[in-house]
């Protein structure tokens, strides 16, 4: 099966999910004229206000009541990331392992290349080892692993999905998943669009690089981006480049270069994930447009925040604190391990650009730039007596 001119990637949900995303875009259910547009001035005002709000330090709000965690000592959490090659995944996994160790929990980071075969192998290994809990992290669709998750449940092992479901959409979580830690993919994409709207004064030509094969998280981002441009920048002209995750390194540089060579008016690229940025920059350089084309993106990986600090092609990144996410993950998982009810747990967003990038550290580092209120906040919930 093919997606445009691309083969469907081995990573992410089934081929049908990917095709469904494309069908929605083509039918106008996502973006297009689905939202009533507003005036250029009002669009710029809206974008500026949103960016100002999200440029400030995020506030920590207790996800639920305090609870006793004394029973978790000696337990094991087996985490399967969507791909160990993605920087955001590896940074969050390292933060989770360090935090879990403080409370006597063994954290296993199952290294994999992003193939469904390896996801199944990881699940089988976790079940055979009788771990205490399995975490699917960063984009694995639990539906892909429904038989394995049900086998884990039969063995008394709960399964948690982290960073896959859109914040506020609890109805999407299947009954065989014990809990989740959501992410606001929709809002992140809106903020990426807002930055371009503001910087381009309401009239822009841009490329949007996406990977619809990554399923529901990608779909939420596509919806947010297209809706924001449709509503607040009707004069913005967008060319969408859809590249499956497995083909980022080979196809993003050539497709970006070709698109820029075809249209000299393009001055912005919206990358769905900041790990794309290395390949987008390569395409910009190949087209001879270095310094003339700028990137807005999402995840806040330190490597790409450093690009902002050094005035590179990435000039805005909607960051998620990997350490904050590690705390949110562990909070939900310890609630499950101690027999407490699950809560609405989620990560947070902060916009980084040249105006506030210094707050992310010099050089930018994981866990820096989001304040420390969440550390005191979460640990105050975790009682040991």
What's this model, at a glance?
The protein is an alpha/beta fold and 385 residues long.
Beta-strand fraction estimate: 15-25%
CATH class group of the largest domain: Alpha Beta
Determine Rg (CA atoms, Å): 21 Å
Average pLDDT taken over every residue: 90
Give an overview of the whole structure:
The structure is a single chain. By secondary structure, this protein is of the alpha/beta class. 41% of the residues lie in helices and 18% in strands. It folds into two domains: 2-57 and 185-319, Rossmann fold, CATH 3.40.50.2300; 67-183 and 322-341, Response regulator (Rossmann fold), CATH 3.40.50.2300. The strands form four sheets. It has a six-stranded parallel beta sheet with strand order 5-4-6-7-8-14, sandwiched between helices. Helix 9 links the parallel strand 11 (268-271) and strand 12. The N and C termini lie far apart (56 Å). Residues 1-36 have low confidence and may be disordered.
Structure keywords:
single chain; 385 residues; alpha/beta; Rossmann fold; 6-stranded mixed sheet; 12 helices
Topology:
Layout: E1 2-3, E2 6-7, H1 15-27, H2 40-55, E3 67-68, E4 76-81, H3 87-102, E5 106-109, H4 116-128, E6 133-137, H5 146-154, E7 159-166, E8 179-183, H6 185-199, E9 205-210, H7 216-232, E10 237-242, H8 248-262, E11 268-271, H9 277-286, E12 294-299, H10 302-309, E13 314-319, H11 322-337, E14 345-346, E15 350-352, H12 373-381, E16 382-383
Parallel strand pairs: 3-16, 4-5, 4-6, 6-7, 7-8, 8-14, 9-10, 9-11, 11-12, 12-13
Antiparallel strand pairs: 1-2, 13-15
